[in-house]
Amino acid sequence: MILYEKIAAQLPAWRERIKSLAKDHAEVVVDKVTVGQIVGGMRDIKSLLTDVSYVDSNEGIRFRGLSIPEVLKKLPKPRGAKIPLVGGLYYLLMVGEIPTMEEAMAVEDEWDKRAEIPDYVYKMLKTMPKDAHPMILLNLAVMSLERNSAFARKYREGMKKDEYWEPALEDSLDLTAKIPVIAAFIYRYKYFGEKKKPGYNVKLDYGANFARMMKISDKKGYADLSRLYFILHSDHESGNVSAHSTHLVGSSLSDIYFAYSAGLSGLAGPLHGLANQECLAWLLEVIKRFDGVPSRDDLYKFAWDTLNSGKVIPGYGHAVLRVPDPRFTAQMEFAKARFPHDDLVRLADMVFDVVPTVLKEQGKAKNPAPNVDAISGTLQYYYGVREFDFYTVLFGVGRALGVTANYVWSRALGMPIERPKSVTTKMLEEAVAKSLQPL
Ligand code: CMX
Questions:
Q1: Residue 338 within a domain
Q2: Does some domain include residue 334?
């Protein structure tokens, strides 16, 4: 398999670099930690290592050094399509190089071989109560697949540390192949009562297959959107909740099924993945209140009402970014190129004009600009995916790509178990008192 070969070829050099850092330069200071950071969610402390992606606060995400516009331009695309193959993105995340069409297709072919879901998974999902959140269904399906983990089996049998990454990659390919099939089943079963297995077609790519399995009528547009959505949501360096929880759990040598399940649980939180459904709900509330797209002034007042009622404006602000999220920009461009007259798109565009001003006037948010969630629900809504609580599942499908690439490399580079140190409140107060003493 091409990913094995490509990663194996790079490993000796990478291992040498990590070894040299750990052995010869371990004492070099990279960052300092302040009291504010300790009581403030460890914001900005440079303490995680990844080469898969990097978020520059003034520029946004780069996947293996490539910006979003570069990724969308340079990765191979299916014939006649505008958005690249997800297989090519996975190759880029795993290998760190832009794939040829053949290399991207090799990943897609690998997914085709692994997309079959065992019957018991479907059966188990069908036993769940109707009101179970789709993220719970996704998480249960992932956990139920854990019994097939090659990593767990090989670990039990006894495997050398140098070999950990191989079954980790095997599991990651299995998991990423199966996730969209499970997600599509959950969608059709939960909201339409369909009990049949999704109709996976090996002739279609990852995104087109997803569009087919979801049974979206405008499959062509939705295939493009699916590819775009999964690519944009794949990775956002290592500190966000889903990536970090996956990494943390994986560091104990839990296999990727356990680790990704932890990531999904984090993604289900309203300040993380759930924000996209909240954002769309907010936009629809505006439309309902004003019986259509409001005037700029009405929107300005509505945004202030939201803040004054103690709520956040979903889709705006970011822990790291200080500019509009390029993932927002890419999706807005997609919408404007295809359905610029859609009410929600027009509204989302007006919100982009008004809300940053409101947040600046309020003066609390460090970044008044839109994040990825300010538009992603709007696009799904346009294509008829209007079940809001499903949106986080879509995020989860995309996020699987990034967290598995990180998991494989963490095992390949022998990353140790994570174990940061705690302090008590008293210790912090003592540190503060000491710093206030005259010299
Ligand atoms: N609306 C209102 N207030 C906001 C705000 C927003 N969109 N964004 C930040 N603020 C407030 C914070 O609540 C915080 O207030 P307090 O001091 O009263 O607690 C203050 O501004 C400072 O926050 P910050 O340092 O700018 O932002 P954080 O790093 O603490 O939080 C985030 C980042 C995304 C959770 C926050 O901006 C937010 O809640 N946004 C709305 C929800 C959202 O869109 N989440 C999606 C995140 C995208 C992702 O998961 O990738």
A1: yes
A2: yes
| Residue 432 lies inside a defined structural domain of this protein | no
Q: What CATH number should be reported for the domain holding residue 375? A: 1.10.230.10
Where are the alpha helices (H) located in 291-389, listed in sequence order? 296-308, 326-338, 343-362, 373-382
* Ligand 1 near 315 CB (within 6 A): yes
Q: Which domain holds residue 306?
A: 275-382
The mean pLDDT values, 10 residues at a time, for the chain of 439 residues are: 96 98 96 96 95 94 97 96 97 98 98 98 96 97 98 98 98 98 98 96 96 88 97 96 98 98 94 82 95 96 97 92 95 96 96 97 96 93 94 96 98 97 97 88
What stretches of 25-149 show up as alpha helix (H) in DSSP? 35-39, 68-74, 86-95, 101-114, 119-126, 134-144
The token duo for 350 is 């007006």
| Single pTM value for the model | 0.95
Q: Is the CB of 268 under 6 A from ligand 1?
A: no
Q: Considering the domain boundaries, does residue 333 fall inside one?
A: yes
Tokens, residue 129: 């109560």
CA distances from 187 to 117, 181, 216, 255 (A): 15, 10, 11, 26
Ligand 1 within 6 A of CB of 321: no
Look at the chain and report how many structural domains it folds into. Answer: 1
| Atom of ligand 1 lying closest to residue 40 CA | 30
Ligand 1 centroid to Cα of residue 318, in Å, is 6
Tokens standing for residue 174: 């299995």
Report the chain's C-alpha Rg in angstroms.
22
Q: What is the DSSP letter of 370?
A: B
d(CA 247, ligand 1 centre) in Å: 23
